[in-house]
Amino acid sequence: MSEESTxxxxxxxxxxxxxxxxxxxxxxxxxxxxxxxxxxxxxxxxLILAGAVGSVTGETTFLVQMALIVAGVATLIQAFPVGxxxxxxxxxxxxxxxxxxxxxxxxxxxxxxxxFGAALVAAxxxxxxxxxxxxxxxxxxxxxxxxxVMLIGLTLIPTGMDYAAGASAGPGADGYxxxxxxxxxxxxxxxxxVLNQFFxxxxxxxxxxxxxxxxxxxxxxxxIVDFSAVSSAGWITVxxxxxxxxxxxxxxxxxxxxxxxxxxxxxxxxxxxxxxATGRDASERELKGGLMADGVMSMFAAxxxxxxxxxxxxxxxxxxxxxxxxxxxxxIGGVCLxxxxx
Length: 342
Fold this sequence. Notes:
Layout: H1 24-52, H2 60-79, E1 93-95, H3 100-110, H4 112-122, H5 124-131, H6 133-136, H7 142-155, H8 157-165, H9 179-198, H10 202-205, H11 207-221, H12 228-232, H13 250-276, H14 284-303, E2 309-311, H15 313-322, H16 327-341
Antiparallel strand pairs: 1-2
């Protein structure tokens, strides 16, 4: 396949194509919808890392804010490339769960500086994948990358079920699996599916956002939502690069380098899945740009005290679920992430 050529696949299912610009009053909630779909996956890894690595205990808020800021910048780069970096597609970026377990081990053994040092030095692995895509793409056919993306989704099912049952309480604790928790989760699912399957137009494409808002409104009415932490927090946080420093451990770097290959396969699958919604295959330019953005933004993340970033499969599903493939909508989501981070 040449760099700019594409191959038609199935009929397009999108209402708004990649270069379409929905009216602003529609685009803003659609962008927020993308943020809501990925927010938990983006903030959970720094929350877990802060609790597991002693040297950053008590730094939870800062690590979460850095994760939001980096995800916002990375998402904007994917939607609006800078030179060869970026896919020019509605790809939402965020903190990668794939790195969490190994990075916790690295942090406990060598310190948090080794976590960011390994992430920084190993990130060019994905950049090399992007530069030389035509040489090894035959080793990552759609069957392989599709299975990788599918497995990532399947492994998140237990996490989703735990949160639906009341993850803050934990399995076996009071409130876990209560009718209140399951009822709220069921309400969000019901509203989302009904609006998506039995309505058309803007109501259909905003179905995920509407489902979350409905569940949140009921949760506030039941007194489940606690705003005290929000009211007591400061208004603005400024990013501090290299707050924890960098150190370089060879074994840590090799481990993280291997993980970048895995997330590179995920990115190839996510880009292919996003573009397939428009009825064509991804071009080499899009795949290379997406991989380059993964690598470059993971280096950026390491410098700003965040874990490596990758494309988010749940947002690929959202594109196919709603039929909104506009990169301008995703760009609005990136701006929302930046605002939340600051």
